[in-house]
Amino acid sequence: MSKQRYTCGSALLIVFWAIAIMSICVLGLIGFLYSDLDETTALKNDMHARQLAGAGVAVGMHPSVSRGDPVLKQMLSDGEGFEVSLHSEGGRLNINNVLRNQQWSVLQNLFEEWGLPGDEIMSLTSAFKDRATNSIQPNSLQTDIPQVADDPVVAVSGTNGVQSIIRLFSSVDEMSTVPGMNDVAQARPDWRDYFTVWSDGPLDLNDAPADLIAAVTGVGMERAQQFVDARVGPDAIRDTQDDLVFTDLNQVRSLLGMSQEEFAAIQGMVSIQDSTARIESTGIFGTYKRKITVVVRKNVTPPVYFLWQEK
């Protein structure tokens, strides 16, 4: 009798263990399904936010849409939509334009505004000169111009019959290879946001920050900041109705407090409109956000794209 009870007890124990194992498997499967469902939902929401960001880019690309236009911000009641900001790529300093025209004082002024010591500034400027320039003898053929890796070059006329060869940057990131740029990165971690290789060349004073305006025009940081403050209007908010948009370079000269002679010296270095735009569109779907940044020359057919970046 006791042996029979022992056998029944063992069988019952095995049944309990089987049920426990099955329960663990079922719970694991349910957890896996929920995890997979959560991941699928997250991917769908993220994709929807990306689609909304793309819709914002399409709106920003329209030729009739300009900065501050209400259509650049569209939000629905359930928390989905997009926010778009338009910038002139000319609001950044075109490093290749600096190299072409050998405007080394602009770099010196900018690095000084960023607080670099004088010896580092001189060393950096020399490094940019060494990186940029070579020379060849007159009558050399275009095919004889030296290429360094895949760097683009442009030949310009020099003095005394010597032709200068300017090595241009193919990207802003390439500037980090210049000796001494680590010092710039320490002083200004966001230095890449101040440079471009895609603009028309001159600095667009309708969009440039104060330190770039001071560096290019030489008016000093205080006056450049006053210029930017006047540009955004009394509310001090960009892209609102009280913004001051310059349509004449004489307006710029007057507000900067420069004489006609002073302004004539930098007139080829500044502009009030650039053909290349930077469109930053953020798609929003609940707590999900995706950002698309596009640099494009949009007022031509077809548009010319320089950058499409998604985050």
3D architecture notes:
With 311 residues, the chain is an alpha+beta fold. It has helices at residues 2-61, 95-100, 104-113, 118-132, 181-187, 210-217, 221-232, 249-256, 260-266; strands at residues 73-75, 80-88, 93-94, 133-136, 153-157, 163-167, 195-196, 203-204, 270-271, 277-285, 288-297, 304-310. A hairpin with a 5-residue loop joins strand 5 and strand 6 (163-167). Helix 3 (104-113) runs antiparallel to helix 4 (118-132) and helix 3 crosses helix 6 (210-217). It is globular.
Question: In what range is the share of β-strand residues?
Answer: 15-25%
* Measured distance between first and last alpha carbons: 74 Å
Count helical runs: 9
The topology string of helices and strands comes to HEEEHHHEEEHEEHHHHEEEE
Q: From the alpha-carbon coordinates, what is the Rg to the nearest angstrom? A: 30 Å
Average residue-wise pLDDT? 85
Q: Please give the largest β-sheet.
A: 5 strands, antiparallel
Number of strands: 12
Backbone structural class: alpha+beta
Q: What percent of residues adopt helix (DSSP H or I)?
A: 40-55%
Q: Which residue ranges are poorly predicted, with pLDDT under 50 across at least 5 consecutive positions?
A: 140-149
Protein topology:
Layout: H1 2-61, E1 73-75, E2 80-88, E3 93-94, H2 95-100, H3 104-113, H4 118-132, E4 133-136, E5 153-157, E6 163-167, H5 181-187, E7 195-196, E8 203-204, H6 210-217, H7 221-232, H8 249-256, H9 260-266, E9 270-271, E10 277-285, E11 288-297, E12 304-310
Parallel strand pairs: 3-7, 8-9
Antiparallel strand pairs: 1-2, 2-10, 4-6, 5-6, 10-11, 11-12
